Write a sequence for this structure.
């Protein structure tokens, strides 16, 4: 009989699950949330299925108050229209709903992010005309980043994504620092928090530079620094993210499982 | 009055080489069958306009129909890259592709201006981004009443707009519902328009959330059941998500792509129910 080696037991969740749960917790019940597809949509639907049943999901396809019973596979999935409070044109969703500041939270991803939470989703490397990698581009993001009352960003943290200098500014966080949003006339407050698979970053109250404030269970400051392409600012006291609850994991996994479920004719 | 036409005849008479062509449909109601007919008729030097290029423009670009692309988000939704689009931008294959790049808000407003008969639209947009450095069609404008600086984008006025809808009546009045995107604006902004529909019926029963395009605002209607596949038609078909995933592998390699297009588009005559009846 051998004695068990004294090691940390493997966490019963993945880094992506922790990231999605942490992102969902940022959404308060009753808020109107402009949701992009992918991680933001998963997190927003997790929030609606757990602590925020009255979260208003707004999709750029024109679905206001969408209530999908499974994860939508695209921004224009028919399940978003089925039980929505209203389905409006794309021009209306941007002009009447986003532009005047009616949306509380914009939920964005990023291919590249810099220390002031500016986002690139357009090109990487080379020149604009002849890039090394051509990404999809802006979509709704520039105006979501500008006009929502606040922005939550969800992105996996690595040297590839957390870069010293963006190859292209697709959406503005805090520009080159404090005062830039006001100078540009952007009416929303900008990014409130960046959720990654390692931890949580928040803009410094004075400089607006992203500062590591939380680490997910098992993650270290060294790990966060090694995944950041600039000298990472770290808060004096870094808190530990509360691990996912059984309920959060159960609901998240149930939602993820619906992605592969075939759907009938609507 | 819209002419009820075959798809082949409608494309042949409405889409010309060098045209500015908009094919809209926001994930929903994407007019794939009409695009395939454009490919079969070998249109060239098109300026393709669309908010979300999607697989439909990946196919047109890869088949060499496009000279330039006006867009705001060019990906395979929920899957990844559009490989033919990327190959054209990164390597100039099969022909170089000029880009005019916008945001969704900018594109939607450009259609609204076009539909409204205005030369440009005003919005709060693009501010602080690098898009105005590369897109000449984004400018600042000062509000004459408040002095506030806003953004102006020129109207989109396509030579022809093509959309898909659920149904039309025998007079050519068109009815669509579900996610209606920018289809109405894109049709009203265009000089000519073609609407493919799932079915032509005697009477359009009202549906919640419907958008009606009156016959006299549409140039041609063609009955093409399943004409939005692999996207979907709310109430008629579901999105073929598996095909969107499969497209990643099909489109990654030039030869695989060309073989797929030959077998599934060039050698295949997808005909509407009215094909042959109207010249």
């Amino acid at each position: 009989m051998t004695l068990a080696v004294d090691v940390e037991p493997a966490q019963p969740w993945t880094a992506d699950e922790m990231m999605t749960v942490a992102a969902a917790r940022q959404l308060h019940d009753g808020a109107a949330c402009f949701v992009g597809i992918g991680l933001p949509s998963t997190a927003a639907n997790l929030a609606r299925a757990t602590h925020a049943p009255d979260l208003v999901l707004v999709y750029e396809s024109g679905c206001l108050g969408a209530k999908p019973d499974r994860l939508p596979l695209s921004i224009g999935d028919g399940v978003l229209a089925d039980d929505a409070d209203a389905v409006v044109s794309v021009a209306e969703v941007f002009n009447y709903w986003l532009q005047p500041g009616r949306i509380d939270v914009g939920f964005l991803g990023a291919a590249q992010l810099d220390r002031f939470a500016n986002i690139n989703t357009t090109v990487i490397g080379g020149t604009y005309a002849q890039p090394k990698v051509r990404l999809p581009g802006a979509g709704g993001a520039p105006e979501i980043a500008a006009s929502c009352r606040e922005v939550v960003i969800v992105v996996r943290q690595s040297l590839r994504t957390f870069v010293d200098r963006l190859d292209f500014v697709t959406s503005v966080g805090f520009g080159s620092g404090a005062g830039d949003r006001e100078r540009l006339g952007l009416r929303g407050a900008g990014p409130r928090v960046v959720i990654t698979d390692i931890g949580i970053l928040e803009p410094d109250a004075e400089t607006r530079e992203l500062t590591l404030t939380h680490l997910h269970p098992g993650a270290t400051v060294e790990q966060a620094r090694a995944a950041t392409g600039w000298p990472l600012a770290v808060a004096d006291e870094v808190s530990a993210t509360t691990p996912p609850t059984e309920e959060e994991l159960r609901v998240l996994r149930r939602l993820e499982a619906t992605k592969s479920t075939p759907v009938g004719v609507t | 009055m819209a002419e009820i036409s075959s798809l082949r005849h409608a494309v042949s008479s409405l889409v010309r080489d060098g045209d500015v062509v908009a094919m809209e449909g926001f994930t929903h109601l994407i007019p794939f069958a009409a695009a395939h007919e454009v490919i079969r008729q070998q249109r060239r030097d098109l300026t393709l306009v669309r908010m979300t290029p999607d697989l439909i423009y990946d196919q047109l670009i890869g088949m060499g129909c496009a000279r330039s692309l006006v867009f705001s988000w060019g990906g395979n939704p929920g899957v990844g890259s559009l490989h033919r689009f990327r190959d054209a931008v990164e390597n100039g294959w099969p022909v170089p592709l000029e880009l005019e790049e916008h945001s969704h808000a900018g594109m939607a407003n450009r259609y609204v201006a076009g539909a409204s008969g205005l030369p440009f639209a005003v919005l709060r947009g693009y501010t602080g981004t690098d898009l105005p450095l590369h897109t000449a069609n984004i400018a600042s404008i000062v509000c004459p009443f408040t002095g506030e600086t806003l953004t102006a984008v020129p109207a989109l006025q396509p030579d022809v707009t093509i959309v898909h809808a659920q149904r039309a009546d025998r007079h050519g009045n068109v009815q669509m519902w579900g996610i209606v995107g920018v289809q109405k604006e894109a049709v009203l902004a265009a000089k000519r328009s073609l609407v493919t529909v799932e079915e032509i019926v005697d009477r359009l029963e009202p549906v919640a959330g419907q958008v009606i395009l009156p016959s006299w605002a549409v140039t041609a209607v063609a009955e093409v059941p399943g004409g939005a596949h692999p996207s979907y038609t709310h109430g008629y078909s579901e999105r073929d998500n598996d095909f969107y995933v499969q497209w990643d592998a099909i489109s990654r390699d030039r030869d695989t792509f060309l073989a797929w297009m030959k077998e599934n588009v060039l050698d295949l005559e997808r005909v509407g129910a009215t094909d042959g009846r109207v010249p």
User: Anything to note?
Assistant: Helices of chain A lie at 15-24, 39-49, 78-82, 90-98, 141-147, 180-184, 221-226, 246-258. Chain A is about 25% helix and 20% strand.
